[in-house]
Fold this protein.
Amino acid sequence: MNSAMNAKRLFRDRADAAQALANSLAAYRGAHSLVLAIPRGAVPMAWDIAQALQGELDVVLVHKLGAPFSAEFAIGAVDESGRVYRSPHAFQAGANEAYIEQEAARQLEVLRRRRERYTPLRPPIDPAGRTVIVVDDGLATGATMIAALQALRAQHPARLICAVPVAAADSLAKVEALADEVICLHAPQDFAAVGQFYDRFDQVEDDEVAAILTSAGSA
């Protein structure tokens, strides 16, 4: 893992970050790895990485739980099975158990709709016994990555890898205990938000995700 850097912009765009991650994952080229993206932003990146590694692409569906007074601030995450991860700061951010249950139910419905839209003709690819590489475009609180790794560990992959271009140092420490290997290119001390380290950080829409997964399934 590279040392922390102070540069405000580390990547031109997600494609640039994906190329850098693929280079760091070169040891897995030809190993029939399963590359799982956390939607939506990481899906184009994971597709580039899967192609570079000659691996298989799918998504791992998790969604952050937004704080009561700041929906963009994650206080936890829920996975597709309904398992809820609560961040240590959830209650300090104004949440209580009733709020967390309500927010989890709301985001679980989002995940249900996404699964129907993203892979309508097939079930999720089984990670059991596979080398699984979980990709996101960055870790802020780390909540969604933590939920993804916990959900996948329960499905018994042979090796579980977290791969991100940039992360907050404290969030990185949280995920290191949950994966067999963590690939993080930069952990800047001045981390405020993932997007600050990209020149271009456009929103990825559901239609693009569905198109990429359809292309991957027919490749």
